[in-house]
Amino acid sequence: MRAALGVELEFDPEAISAIAKKAMRLKTGARGLRSILEEKMLDVMFDIPSDKTIYKITIINPI
Description:
The chain has 63 residues and is an alpha+beta fold. 59% of the residues lie in helices and 13% in strands. It has one domain (2-59): Helicase, Ruva Protein, domain 3, CATH 1.10.8.60.
């Protein structure tokens, strides 16, 4: 994300665990991880290009 949009993306350790657990619960594997992340980041991905004050995004629990 940094290279494409100039924004740092950070994950809280609890969020990483929650994302992995959700993917395991859904039995979706790596594709599930991607869809979970896309679902949670969709709104902010649209806001970043138009809001030059966003420099860092931290994904926190709960997912």
